[in-house]
Amino acid sequence: MAASMTGRSIRWGKLAWRELSTVAITIFGLLLVTFVIARVIPIDPVLAVVGDNAKADVYDAARAVLGLDKPLWQQFAVYVGKVFSGDLGKSVLTSNLVVDDIKRVFPATLELATLGTLIGVALGIPLGVLAAVYQGRWPDQIARVVGLFGYSIPVFWIGLMGLLLFYAKLGWVGGPGRIGVAYQDFVTPMTGVLMIDAAIQGEWEAFWDAWSHLILPSAVLGLFSLAYISRMARSFMITELQQQYVIAARVKGMSEFRVIWRHALRNAFVPLITVIALSYAHLLEGSVLTETIFAWPGLGRYITNSLLNADMNAVLGGTLVVGAVFIGVNLLSDILGRLVDPRTR
């Protein structure tokens, strides 16, 4: 018994070490890439601070303050040290610390991406399962059309048509922005997620107004998530339905519902976890067009505005957050996959 526990501890220790090593290498690569981008991109961060008409001595002094007069390896070491201490620099555009700006805009993207992913999962998995079960028949054709629509139609067109129909014509949803002007000061920021803050403070009118603004852009993102998830669910389910255990279960007289939804889908759900995680990470990085069309104050819009204004501290800070999101979500999907399927441990 003791030997078994010791062996299990060693296996888990090796697994944890391997995962941590992979994460550490990935983070180092992310830092290196963002550092190189900052040095290669044809934008002078010194001019962004002092202006185009600054004198040579002012320019040189600012360059020294920013540490750009040091060798590259020293600049990289300083950059890594600042990142790990939580210092991403100061935004030229907003005059705030980049960390504070990201804390302000990221919850808006989190709110948008979470609901979009939930829509994609709630509709995409059943659609993919039905398409696999009725392969080549009308449910499969519907799934193909939905997937083709989600992949092919430009997001800006769907967003604009959605605003025209559901906001301007029917008045079913709120317009651009995260909340109506009348409710701007009703909710005190606590978690940063507007609907949660409104619910905590009992501001239910502001809650429903925020919901009316959230549902349409989330549905636009959810359409693309749905197309991706349904396609992958269909592929995984077709593979599982051809396995011997499914044939054996049917021979034993097990109901078709139980075979499909409790056995085949359970096994297909292991790779689906990774698919859902990647879809969520893509939405969390900030859908630039969606946030621009709906005037949504999220991370994607923040990075885009910063890039257009040569605010490199903000661009690199946002890029690091996007990379960290992908690393974290991938790690979480690996852990969940091992918990759901003991064969992968």
From TrEMBL:
<dbReference type="Pfam" id="PF00528">
    <property type="entry name" value="BPD_transp_1"/>
</dbReference>
<dbReference type="GO" id="GO:0005886">
    <property type="term" value="C:plasma membrane"/>
</dbReference>
<feature type="transmembrane region" description="Helical">
    <location>
        <begin position="146"/>
        <end position="168"/>
    </location>
</feature>
<comment type="similarity">
    <text>Belongs to the binding-protein-dependent transport system permease family.</text>
</comment>
<dbReference type="Pfam" id="PF19300">
    <property type="entry name" value="BPD_transp_1_N"/>
</dbReference>
<keyword id="KW-0813">Transport</keyword>
<feature type="transmembrane region" description="Helical">
    <location>
        <begin position="314"/>
        <end position="336"/>
    </location>
</feature>
<keyword id="KW-0472">Membrane</keyword>
<dbReference type="GO" id="GO:0071916">
    <property type="term" value="F:dipeptide transmembrane transporter activity"/>
</dbReference>
<feature type="transmembrane region" description="Helical">
    <location>
        <begin position="264"/>
        <end position="283"/>
    </location>
</feature>
<dbReference type="InterPro" id="IPR000515">
    <property type="entry name" value="MetI-like"/>
</dbReference>
<feature type="transmembrane region" description="Helical">
    <location>
        <begin position="112"/>
        <end position="134"/>
    </location>
</feature>
<keyword id="KW-1003">Cell membrane</keyword>
<dbReference type="InterPro" id="IPR045621">
    <property type="entry name" value="BPD_transp_1_N"/>
</dbReference>
<feature type="domain" description="ABC transmembrane type-1">
    <location>
        <begin position="106"/>
        <end position="333"/>
    </location>
</feature>
<keyword id="KW-1133">Transmembrane helix</keyword>
<protein>
    <submittedName>
        <fullName>Peptide ABC transporter permease</fullName>
    </submittedName>
</protein>
<keyword id="KW-0812">Transmembrane</keyword>
<feature type="transmembrane region" description="Helical">
    <location>
        <begin position="210"/>
        <end position="229"/>
    </location>
</feature>
<feature type="transmembrane region" description="Helical">
    <location>
        <begin position="20"/>
        <end position="41"/>
    </location>
</feature>
<dbReference type="InterPro" id="IPR035906">
    <property type="entry name" value="MetI-like_sf"/>
</dbReference>
